[in-house]
Amino acid sequence: MMHLTALPVLLPLIGGFLLLFTGRNIQLQRQLHLALMLGLLIVSGLALQTALTGQYSLYQLGNWQPPFGIVLVLDRLSAMLVLLTTLLALGALVYAIATDTDHQGPHFHVLFQLQLFGLNGAFLTGDLFNLFVFFEVLLLASYGLLLHGGGRLRTRAGLHYVVINLIGSTLFLFAVGTLYGMLGTLNIADMAQRMAQLPAEDQGVVAAAGLLLLVVFGIKAAMFPLYLWLPAAYAQAPAAVAALFAIMTKVGLYAIIRVHGTVFGEQAGALAYIHSQWLLLLGMVTLALAALGVMASRGLREQVAYLVLASVATLLIAIGLNTAEALAASLYYLVHSTLIAGAMFLLADIISRSRAAMQDQFIPGPVLPNIILIGSVFMLIAIAMTGMPPLSGFFGKVMILHAALAHDWYAAIVAVILVSGLLMIISMARTGSLLFYKAHESHGEAGPASKPLAVAAVLALLTAAPLLVVFAQPFTAFTETTTAQLLNTQAYIEAVLSTAGDLP
Amino acid sequence: MSFLSVNLPLVALLPFFGAPLAAFAARYHRLASAWTAGLVTILSLLFLLPSARFPFNGDTLIQSWDWIPAAGLEFAFRLDGLALLFALLILVIGLLIVIYARYYLSDRDSMGRFFAYLLMFMGSMLGIVLSENLIQLLVFWELTSLTSFLLISYWQHRQDARQGARMALAITGAGGLALLAGILLIGHVVGSFNLTDVLAAGDEIRAHSLYLPILLLILLGVFTKSAQFPFHFWLPHAMAAPTPVSAYLHSATMVKAGIFLLARLFPALSGTTEWMWLVGGAGLLTLILGAYTALVKHDLKGLLAYSTLSHLGLITLLFGFSTPMATVAAIFHIINHATFKASLFMVAGIIDHETGTRDMRRLNGLLKYMPHTAVLAMIAAAAMAGVPLLNGFLSKEMFFEQAVLASDTSMITWAIPVLVTLAAAFSVAYSIRFIHDVFFNGEAKDLPKTPHEPPRFMKIPVDLLVVLCLVVGIAPMLVAGPILAVAVSGSLQTATPDFSIALWHGFNLPLLMSVIAMAAGVWLYWQRQIIYRLHEQLNERFDGKAVFDRLLSQINGFAAMITRRFDKGSLQHAALWIIGTAVLAGVIGFANQSAPLFGERALLPIDAISLMLVTGLIIASVLTAVLHRQRLVALITIGVVGLIVALGFVKFSAPDLALTQLSIEIVTIVLLLLALFFLPQLAPAESDKTRLWRDGGIALLAGGAVSVLAMAVLSRDFMPISGFFIENSVPGGGGTNVVNVILVDFRGFDTLGEIVVLALAGLGIFAMMRGLKLPAPKLDFSGRDWSNDPHPPIMQTLTRLLFPLMLMVAVFIFLRGHNLPGGGFIAGLIASVALIAQYLANGIDWTSDRLRFDMHKVIGFGLLIAVMTGVVAMMLGYPFLTSAFTYLYWPVVGKFEVASAIAFDIGVFLVVVGATVMILVQLGKLTHEANHRQQQEQK
Amino acid sequence: MEWLIALAIGVMTACGVFLTLRPHTFSVVLGLTLLAYAVNVFLFAMGRLTIGQPVVIDATATGYADPLPQALVLTAIVIAFGMTAFLIVLALKARSELGNDHVDGLHISNKKNGARR
Amino acid sequence: MLEWLLAALIVIGAFFTLVGSIGLYKLPDFYMRLHGPTKASTLGVGAVLVASAVYFTFKTGDVSLHEILVTLFLFITAPVSAHLMAKAALHIQVKQLERTRQTHKGQD
Amino acid sequence: MIHTAIMIAYVMVGLAFVLSLARLVKGPELPDRILALDTLYINTIALLILLGIHLGSAMYFEAALLIAVMGFMGTLALSKYLLRGDIME
Amino acid sequence: MMRRLLPHPVLSVFLWLIWLLLNNTMAAGHVVLGAVLAVFIPWLSSAFWPEQVCIKKPLVLLRYILVVLWSIIVANINVARLILGRSDKLQPGFISLELRLQSPVGISMLSNTISLTPGTVSCDLSDDRRYLLIHALHIDDVEAIISDIQNRFEQPLLEIFES
Ligand code: NA
Ligand code: NA
Known about the structure:
The complex is a heterohexamer.
Chain B: H1 7-25, H2 30-48, H3 53-56, E1 61-68, E2 73-79, H4 81-104, H5 111-130, H6 134-152, H7 159-190, H8 195-200, H9 202-207, H10 211-225, H11 234-237, H12 243-252, H13 254-264, H14 266-269, H15 273-296, H16 300-321, H17 324-355, H18 371-385, H19 391-407, H20 415-439, H21 456-474, H22 476-479, H23 481-492, H24 509-526, H25 528-539, H26 544-566, H27 571-591, H28 608-626, H29 631-651, H30 655-676, H31 689-714, H32 722-733, H33 738-746, H34 748-769, H35 793-816, H36 824-842, H37 844-850, H38 855-875, E3 885-890, E4 894-899, H39 900-938
Helix pairs in contact in B: 1-2, 1-5, 2-4, 2-5, 4-5, 4-12, 4-17, 4-21, 4-23, 5-6, 6-7, 7-10, 10-13, 10-15, 12-17, 13-16, 15-16, 15-20, 16-17, 16-20, 17-18, 17-19, 17-21, 17-23, 18-20, 18-21, 19-20, 19-21, 19-24, 20-24, 27-31, 28-29, 29-30, 30-36, 30-39, 32-33, 33-34, 34-38, 34-39, 35-36, ...
Chain E: H1 2-26, H2 30-55, H3 61-84
Chain F: H1 2-5, H2 9-23, H3 28-45, H4 58-84, E1 93-98, H5 104-116, E2 120-125, E3 131-136, H6 142-162
Antiparallel strand pairs in F: 1-3, 2-3
């Protein structure tokens, strides 16, 4: 099916304005939205199935051949991320419906769908400026979602988030502009091709643009020292939105893998992989700071935000290692951390609601309804998140560590990853102990029990952790072939530019 | 696939499957979970036993499956002698513990939870000892940390239980991570994580430059788990656990996991000086320290805990000797210690259970209340003290012998036998204390309960273990010889050295040492009050827990300090970092390449107009920055910047841009004015002058960097793809305005995204506005009343007059867009401005009454139309957004073009109008409501 | 001429950065607006400067300006407008909920710190 | 001849534009300065526009009259601007030159 | 001839531009600055038409037209702001 | 029917002319399109034109426009002299003028004309719409200015809109 590549982008767009026409009928919106998500799930699955053949599926928008027109490129990586986004979004949406979050302000469903439009667009586009546009789409949607429902702290976090991202967008344009000014093109594959012929005297400027672009993606990916937007934004967002945001940092990482990995790939000569060592270095700093942040958090949601930061930092390190093994490991860890982080944000909200007045603050609270169930789920998620065995976080980390041994800085990398892991374990043990063991009737009234559907959403996302362990073999086989495809820049260039020259 | 090729994983995993069953069973009956746990343990044992013949035949059974080849991880199990011994210990003692615990737990304790945890722990331990793959071993290793956390904190309402559990988790967790690092390095060196390969590569590992790091990391794991000095302090605090847990974890299993690993990796790591010093040193220190502390503890379980430490030190020291015979002694003592210490813990549990206290200063003369228990305790304690006829004596003798042997090898090792004897003396002393202070020594002092014998079945496990102590002590080779032999061979991975364990070895140095230790032990116990006093004085200084707590709180403080210092919650701080990093990134990127900054492209000459425009631009920009505190002024000056930018676009051949910029400029001013109404008119002066200078500095730096960057590009030639657009604009896109054709056709997808952004802004603002309340300022910034003429009539009349004219212009700009500067965007903005002018001049009510469009719908339809043009193409079998155009001829009208891109542009137009008007009018309504509220209040 | 434009971009950037780093929302909005101008001009200039060369196909034209950056800037302008609008309304919301127009909502942080110590 | 006419129109237009700005710059109070731009927007821009119309008419051979529209729109909008600015200035009591005369006609 | 006239006109309009800017800088009061902005719009129209004649391109006309139609909106809004604070009520 | 289709015929003619001017053409296509728009746009915006504007004497209007244009040229020259001369010689002043005009359009036209002719700016309209406040750059003779406005501008406007 020729349009399959475009459907993951078009479906949420059409869904978005269909939802706009439903007015204020919340039930209709929910049903329509769930139907749309189901459709998207099918489309994403089919897209992944197509990608599994190992071919690149191109979609020439407007029937203009690349590099002139905008092209969507579906390969294993983009297909995987689209499906991942859909799964995460489904969990977040169900939770939002279960907790009536969608009812707390206008346009939740529209913004949600358009957020997916932006995300899937960013994952599929093969054009750097179009990537900018999709970044803006997903950002503006995320602004709306983040502020959904209102509240003082949320507003403040939103303000910071918006301003920082506006600075980021400005930097993005500077970088894209420079790259266009030097390379004369916007198509990523074409840029990569032109990098091969870049005269030596032009390398300095292109390198500057490349690192500037790294800063831009670094903001999204929450790389030190650019992550300051993250803790408050994630901690203050409505839970369902925070869960969906688990994919937001991954967009930054994806962009680095896609854009830098291609443009500054092997063919770039002296500029090949100029970004890698910075990713590695800054990833390590980020991880250390994130672990300290987990430790220093004053509330559960803040802590989860820092845990997300830590997982992103781990990914930065893995990507910075820049070997096939490390990249494959990073993809495994990416899927794991996205779904688990989503689950954890939802769970934090469940806990926070149940603790009533205490919310998610680290002070002893009342005995929660269903304390055994919630406590067990918390423990499992904490284990997965901090990278303890036997859940997926551990195996992802081990693969990354294994890959790190080939690097010159292996001692530092291993030390940072393990020590920060320890700090997080200690912190999470303290948190669990406080929330569940210290809970007592004397600490006030508990809130109402959470709806089964809400808990089900958490559990559904959480199943990723054991599944990724049990099916580690086929899944790592997939990440390996994905990485192989990813590292074959030449094939990507040839595939994207294969039609260049024929007029439509 | 036969049973014997899959049973090992089942042995380890069965308890995990059993755990939820046990928890679930408790729902039906309290005891059902105990039965489940017992049956699962027996089942596991039954699964294991058929394979026991392999080790006894000298074979190693390996069962493995691929898992994550990338990380060298296989799902692989191994059964050799060592594994068998430990698996048996875990299962057999585990079974006894299950029986014991069923009676120990009170009605208030949740049985389901306990047995579920216990089974998970058992599975983890089995996993450790049965693993063939080191990573997998580590998985189970960490699982023991987690499950023991759950077990230790079982009585979660008790603070000491929570803290003890967390400390145990922190220490053993840390060790586990070190172990992971060590294992990874081993894998790096050997090229495999499978024990078969690793154990065969001992020489390779020892010769490798990474040997020392590997050793240190592995030992960190071992020492933390086995509570060796200096990580010993967590163990006593873990005694807050229910006694069955202590009996299981801290005698036979968890603390033995470290010892197991020493035995396991013995062929790979032992034999070097580093090994001897590190392993031996830690063992010796722990041995002495533990023995001493055990004597001075008044808590029954405390005594046992430190005694355990001491015995683990003993075993460690034996491994440190690095000889085959020492290994024999070590493994033998592992068996012995497991039996007598488990029984002693159970006894302690019985006493605690029946009397309500464990304080030996209160417990006295229990003999007459529980004689049976007393006898059991005495035998087990004698074994601990190393009294002949009991198993403890035998392994202690072997240990003395090894200590003596070791002392020959180098200079200061003479100290080893001496210290070892001293430790043994303390061991005798605390063993006596355990018996004398509890069962004799006069009458008990105000016990919470009246003691009596425990239920029969609570004693049966102890009976069995005590019998084992005796049997082994009397006929060691018969009872323990075979399993010891295979275990040693499994550990050494070579043939077992010839050994013979007998009660009587003749008069030799070890026997003399035993005698001295006995005598000295009695004397020490007799003089115990002196030691207690001494200890009291030293107590404060050597508290491992205090050190740990201090360290943890320091780390916490450090974490908080760093986090709050970097994540200040300050936007300025965050922005400064980002901008600084961006500048730095550019500079570094450039500096790392040895390329010239500027190229050699011929530059355009400067003309007067441009010079003037740029001068104006700079003045206005700087003025905005300087006068920003006077907000209205800054708004005016920024308007000038926008105007000049637009002029610049015209000057440099970009009329479309100029038109867009001009329109946006005006809308922006209105927008900012609407908002400014609610903000203070003057920003307060900033008190922090250094910050101003710093920001000024970074601003100049950023500006300079951007200038240089721009110049670096502008001074070079490039080969853009734009020629394609110019060539294909008319034939392919049907329009002569290339910019517009790019927007609606070549890159229509960008434009689609862009109108979505605009729509989102509108919707987002609409959502944000709901419930937003702001007080309207009653007076203007200089304190005057506002004018009372809301809609000056002259403005009203003329603006209304202008409305159709502006719409006409909008249509004009729209229609020509495809061929000449203009298009949907600009037309949309003009139409918006026309509407906004009406709102401005006539007021919201008046205008809204006459404008009956819901802007939501306008946006929706705009998007719909834009998307539909793309979807129609899809239906015709072309990619999304493929355009089509044709020329029609109508009479009178003549030839004209019809293009699908125009439809797309209509969509753009509608979204722009809808979003812009919605945004501004929403804002306007805010003031409207605010004023309205105020008027109501005045009434 | 290129120098002149580069200078103009630099000055706008510098002023924009300075304003973005101010502590009150309105200044930040102004700063980001200036930055948007700067980057738009920058992006536009990346097609190189041309005077008197159209972007409309015309038989008499001797050459054409690079139309692509122009299209990009047009997109960027509109997006920047949407963003600015959103931000300014958010600033109002912050003013309403936090009670002041400081970017960090000063009262909140004061209260919080006070409670914590 | 045409050239001369064009040149004259251009210079006249520019001159009045300049005069407007000189007035804006030099006159002593706001209300007097307000008269400056109205000059520029009428005769200044008007003359230049006529020049443009003439120029393009003769250059392309087709009558170019759309310049009239600019003037038309300016004639509608510029006075509104001036009116509102003056009204605003009066409202916030911008200082007047002391010798400003006040005449009230028709009250009596 | 025309060329010379245009050059002279450039200088004069340029000077006008600069004088308007000077008023913008000097103020002293808000209406003065609004007036300066308004004048700059008018100057810009003149400049655009001049450019059109100079470069023989009709491309500059739309910009001038747009300023003529919409340029007053800024002035209107700013003045209304001074009068009422609330510009859309 | 006709009222609803063509609510403001004058406006429609006016818009049609503007369309042709905008496109700088008399091509048949634009003549038709312009006519369509000239009907459509007033229809679309009719709500914004609450009062019927009727021009009673079109010829007077034409003459009025010429007069205004001529006044503008003359006044421009005068004012240029004033501005370039010494500003301390200038005698500025406010004049409050009682209006005879009553229709809003008429008043607006007058105010516009006053502002367009250099040397005078209409500053304010009293709330009761009876007085127009005018600022004059230089006053030699108040009565001359007033009678000038009344005779040259207000009188024809009265004829056009209110006769
Ligand atoms: Na308003
Ligand atoms: Na006048």
